[in-house]
Design a protein that fits this description.
mainly beta; Immunoglobulin-like; 6-stranded mixed sheet
Length: 101
């Protein structure tokens, strides 16, 4: 997955958890994390969504980790974010594959 955005832009991300059979797990708690706050901040809304805010030119990654009621976790593949200077332009998002831990 990847996203290209401007340093003046905010973009909302959504994650959903699934159990081992692929069925939605609506009881899982999802937490978002970013790798470099100087490039973009990740504000976790604690409801399966987060807002990425561009701060400066560069590249970073965002991951979403789901924890089920039994304490099992699964982390998404890193979601690449590239920040370019200037006014907002377009955003492209492509789906990725969750990675179990």
């Amino acid at each position: 997955m990847s996203l290209t955005m401007k340093d003046t832009e905010k973009v909302s991300l959504t994650a959903a958890a699934a159990d081992a059979t692929g069925a939605p797990d609506t009881t899982a708690v999802i937490a978002f994390a970013g790798s470099d706050d100087t490039v973009a901040t990740v504000s976790d809304n604690h409801d399966g969504t987060a807002v990425v805010t561009g701060r400066g030119a560069g590249a970073m990654t965002v991951t979403a980790t789901a924890t089920d009621v039994d304490g099992h976790t699964a982390t998404s593949a890193p979601f690449g974010v590239v920040i370019t200077p200037g006014d907002a332009a377009s955003v492209g998002i492509t789906p990725g594959t969750p990675v179990a831990q």
